[in-house]
Amino acid sequence: MTPQQAYVAGRPVVIAFSVAAPGPLALAVDLVREKTGTPVRRLPIAAAQPGAEQRLSWDGLTGGGDVAPGGRYRVRVRAADGSARNVGAFDLRSHAYPIRGRHADRGAAGAFGVARSGGRVHEGFDVFAACGTPVVAARGGTVRRVVYDPVLYGNLVVIRGAHTHRDYWYAHLLRAPRLRAGDHVRTGVRIGSVGATGNARTIGCQLHFELRPRGVPVDPAPELHAWDAWS
Predict the structure, then answer these.
(1) Are strands 166-173 and 184-185 parallel, antiparallel or unpaired?
(2) Helix, strand, or coil here: 198?
(3) DSSP letter at 168?
């Protein structure tokens, strides 16, 4: 099984195994959620040839096309006679933490909803990290905007998360990303580097991160801290 820690909208889980039998077998590979003991997806193999590698992939979706719940999964191979065998396990996560390197919350000044000059409020959450630290897509999806805002956001990328109605904003990036609106990215793929562009030039290197379900900003801190715990 690879990878051992998989992400929704990320690199698919690859399942590879072989069977010992006198002839071809009809098999089913079940992705079983450990918390409930129930399969969320079944991948059939019409005729598995003895000794030949069977190679399948799973995209993190249920049989109904919904996003599978996060957590631990077992891979169970079931034969037509009802016998079954577990061949591995992995963890499925909804998001990856967007900074790949040492980082720290900015503190009260960088929290969501804090008053800013001109009567506005802070619509995201700030995390300090060294300039040049990789920034990755917290959730794969489609690039919506790649712009430069000299007043506030600096170099900004906005990604619509796959299978969500949420936009993910990554601001103050060091350089203009090599992305265009309409590009598709996977969870965990590098989209830029921590920088100090826009109004961060007076504060220092940081990532300003926003989470906007249906266009409305919400406090991303609880989710960011959860992602940080497993990424």
Answers:
(1) unpaired
(2) helix
(3) E
